[in-house]
Sequence to fold (227 residues):
Amino acid sequence: EVQLVESGGGLVQPGRSLKLSCAASGFTFSNYYMAWVRQAPKKGLEWVATISTSGSRTYYPDSVKGRFTISRDNAKSSLYLQMNSLKSEDTATYYCARPYYGYKDVMDAWGQGASVTVSS
Amino acid sequence: DIQMTQSPASLSASLGETVTIECRASEDIYNGLAWYQQKPGKSPQLLIYNANSLHTGVPSRFSGSGSGTQYSLKINSLQSEDVASYFCQQYYNYPNTFGAGTKLELK
Fold:
């Protein structure tokens, strides 16, 4: 069974940093691109970052580019999201997601989500 | 960025009814469209990709159609477990973008 378990969420002040982790199991982690998608309270979904299988290629929307960094450790089947210079608009539930095999942007497995609140 | 306009924002339907949710893209997305279901308090789940391909394990009462800029998700014979929010997503162009969602409730 595919499992994605996020951790590291919490309350953080504007301008500070936070790092999310995602532990993957039930599939060959190193064979898949991986991604982060967020959902602000009572709002829709927003793609945040994607990383290639080896980690050599990363992709971000303009809203987080330069502030967020996605990374992975294939030996540990783990995905990470380093979030710097956090803003109130970054408040959301952050989902670790696995793209459907052969696709980079269609997510067929999701974690339960990690809640991030940016507030003073 | 490609804007995805989803309608209606909310919808109330009876058990057994057929429901249709629409998604309009701001430009042609060449069938690069997925639909997700998110039940209350849960994570999203993939239903449809490539506009009309049913994901593994998804009941056949769900179907997707459309082309160009206009797409739709149809749910035949609505079941109680279909109460959820539904989101469309275009992945034809960077950045991939989602619709605002449709909240489906039982009448």
About this structure: Chain A has a mean pLDDT of 97. Residues 95 and 113 of chain A are 4 Å apart (CA to CA). The longest strand of chain A covers residues 18-25. Chain A has no helices and eleven strands.
